[in-house]
Design a protein that fits this description.
By secondary structure, the chain is α/β, with parallel strands linked by helices. Helix content is 44%, strand content 11%. The chain is built from 19 helices and 18 strands. The strands form five sheets. It has an eight-stranded mixed sheet with strand order 6-5-9-2-10-11-3-12, with helices on both faces. It has a four-stranded antiparallel sheet with strand order 15-16-17-18, covered by helices on one side. A hairpin with a 3-residue loop joins strand 17 and strand 18. It is globular. The protein starts with 6 loop residues before the first helix and ends in a 12-residue tail after the last helix.
């Protein structure tokens, strides 16, 4: 057959099928590595994901890759010319694309382990701190193996691609065609290429897109279908839809949901909040527990369990996003996460000075401080907090030398010990303090060393369980120590998960794993609150700021999307994943990639059925509220209406 084809087509066809083979090979690797996250499935669905949906995505990407070389070289072929320069140029071009493909395919494996999502633009949150990425790559056997795999594949790819090039172009076609036949020949292959790029061969249907991967109730099977190169570049298209042409309509929906109408401020959500009685100058310690899903609480967390029995504990509390930056940002500012973007890095939002719990407490003479175990430049924390009135920021370099550290920074007990010494110094200044602690030990793949010398002896056997057992032990050790401090009785502790994660024992049916967002929230202050309470109302990280102000009784202008959990009740909770947005009420969980994908689940019993067609009115209302919140949040940022400057008054 080769002798009937021009050289460039032989070359491009071989490249096309090489891509298909590579994609298939990585889909097998992906399936093997992540099989433990798979819910019960049917074998026929796995085959369909591989041989139908997967192949459709793979051939679409492969066709797009060879499209430009095909068009240029076909033009030369039509006029019976050949350019060795262009042939070599497009060989280099395709080699670079294949190298990028391999890089993305390898990155996708650890990325999915973290986020239960195929690769998206969120990976650039990692790339912003390349030194930390390098530390991460060489921190675990799994990531080292992925890195080595990438190098090996790149090495053999160079050899194979060069072999394909020379084997294709050293062969001469035995048959010379007329201009008309060359034109017909080129047109036929152009049509085939266009069909490949379109992906879907039925012309009464839309071109093949991400939503076509969602054919099963099993989310893992759907994710298996997706080509990560497609998901990565497709994620750059994702933005807030212009659903409400008049943004005032969206704003009014949010205001109605929050229970107020008029405001004297330019910020349409701003409302002056006053409290009866004098302000309480309680100290505040805010503890973010890394990756602590509520679904992980139980046998492994006896100390945290005990605290929930002694606290105001919100058992139906949700993180706004799947990343640490989301938990920090929403907790401090009361603002939602928009389209999975990092607002602490994003150009439009990171430079703004927010009306936040930090700024309000600073204005009320609190000493404010933040402690993290690693480098504060991660997620742009140092710049963001400095710009928003945080007095002191402590990071890895500020801690005393210790062997209890790894590539993610010092271990939790070191963080707690160091913070206690600094807090004792704050108290000496006779000034109330607001201190935030961000733990790290429960971060995915965070290795632990033998800690018997400090009194930690694990009972669990699995490494994943041991790190949670350790984190709980370190928290309990810290709380035991603070109870001996003279400032304990006047201190409020707020303990929450920054976000959760997906665990092998948790089989999620949903495109947004709820275990990533369902986290604990505790207000612990036995000398301040009359009695403990477990509250099952819906709650969000955006609610912490206004709830804290109600405890402290500090008058302020509330510009948040939150409610005071001690007085108000929210009907909906809004969450953001990478490329998907979600909203929950007490019964339903609505998920959407606006204008593309929509799902509606009864999540309380992990029901896998999509009720979208059965409950169109509920779906429509939840989507309307979700988009109103997203567009209003973006409106406030775009118009710089989230600060507390006096000239914001009308």
């Amino acid at each position: 057959m080769d002798r009937y084809l021009p050289n460039y087509l032989i070359y491009l066809i071989r490249i096309f099928f090489l891509n298909i083979i590579v994609f298939f090979m990585f889909r097998v690797i992906f399936f093997t590595v992540h099989y433990s996250l798979n819910a019960p499935h049917q074998f026929t669905e796995i085959l369909y994901a591989f041989l139908n949906r997967g192949i459709m995505f793979d051939q679409k990407i492969s066709a797009i890759m060879i499209a430009v070389p095909f068009l240029f070289l076909s033009l030369l072929y039509l006029v019976n010319l050949r350019s060795k320069f262009l042939e070599k140029f497009f060989h280099v071009y395709l080699c670079l694309l294949i190298f990028i493909n391999i890089f993305i395919l390898v990155l996708d494996i650890p990325y999915f382990s973290f986020y239960s999502s195929r690769l998206t633009r969120v990976i650039f949150n990692w790339m912003a701190t390349p030194d930390l990425v390098i530390d991460f790559v060489f921190s675990t056997p799994f990531t080292i193996l992925a890195f080595v795999l990438m190098l090996v594949l790149l090495f053999f790819s160079v050899k194979l691609l060069n072999k394909i090039f020379y084997a294709s172009y050293t062969h001469d076609s035995k048959i010379k065609y007329s201009l008309i036949k060359r034109g017909v020949f080129s047109f036929v292959f152009l049509v085939l290429l266009a069909l490949g790029i379109r992906g879907e061969y039925k012309f009464d249907s839309h071109p093949f897109v991400i939503k076509d991967a969602y054919f099963s109730k099993n989310v893992f099977v759907n994710q298996l279908s997706i080509n990560p190169i497609f998901s990565f570049f497709d994620s750059f298209r994702y933005k807030i839809p212009d659903f409400f042409k008049d943004k005032q309509v969206a704003i009014e929906i949010v205001k109605e949901e929050m229970g107020f109408k008029d405001t004297p401020f330019k910020n349409p959500l701003a409302r002056k909040v006053n409290f009866s009685g004098r302000a309480e100058k309680y100290n505040v310690i805010l503890i973010f527990l890394e990756s602590l899903s509520r679904d992980k609480m139980g046998v492994l967390t006896p100390e945290l369990n005990k605290l929930t029995q002694e606290s105001l504990y919100f058992s139906n509390f949700y993180a706004t996003g799947q990343h640490t930056f989301a938990g920090l940002y929403s907790t401090y500012t009361g603002q939602p996460i928009i389209c999975g973007k990092n607002p602490m890095y994003d150009t439009n939002s990171s430079s703004l000075k927010y009306s936040s719990m930090i700024s309000v407490l600073t204005q009320n003479d609190y000493a404010t401080s933040f402690f993290c175990t690693g480098k504060a430049k991660f997620d742009n924390m140092h710049t963001f907090f400095t710009n928003n009135d945080m007095d002191e920021i402590y990071e890895e370099k500020d801690f005393p030398r210790t062997k209890f550290k790894n590539n993610n920074g010092v271990y939790d007990h070191v963080l707690f010990d160091f913070a206690l010494t600094k807090i004792d110094n704050f108290v000496k200044n006779d000034q109330p303090f607001f201190t935030s602690l961000l733990t790290i030990s429960t971060h995915k793949w965070n290795p632990l060393i033998d800690m018997q010398e400090i009194g930690f002896i694990p009972k669990a056997k699995k490494a994943e369980d041991i790190i949670y057992e350790y984190a709980d032990w370190a928290l309990g050790r810290f709380m035991k120590e603070v109870k001996t401090k003279p400032w304990f009785n006047n201190t409020l502790f707020i303990i929450l998960g920054d976000h959760g994660q997906v665990f092998s024992e948790i089989k999620t049916y949903y495109p947004i794993p709820l275990s990533y967002h369902r986290v604990p929230l505790l207000f612990y202050a036995p000398k301040i609150f009359d009695k403990p309470k477990i509250d099952a109302k819906l709650a969000s990280q955006v609610d912490i700021f206004p709830t804290l102000m109600s405890i402290l009784k500090i008058p302020y202008v509330d510009r948040t999307f939150g409610v005071n959990l001690f007085k108000g009740k929210r009907e909906y909770v809004y969450i953001s994943a990478d490329g998907l947005e979600g909203v929950l009420n007490e019964e339903y969980f609505f998920i959407t990639k606006p204008k593309e994908q929509r799902f509606l689940y009864k999540y309380n019993n992990n029901d896998p059925r999509n009720y979208l067609d059965d409950q169109p009115e509920i779906s429509k209302e939840m989507e309307r509220k979700l988009l109103a919140n997203l567009e209003t949040a973006q409106y406030l940022i775009s118009n710089r209406l989230i600060g507390d400057e006096e000239d914001f008054l009308s």
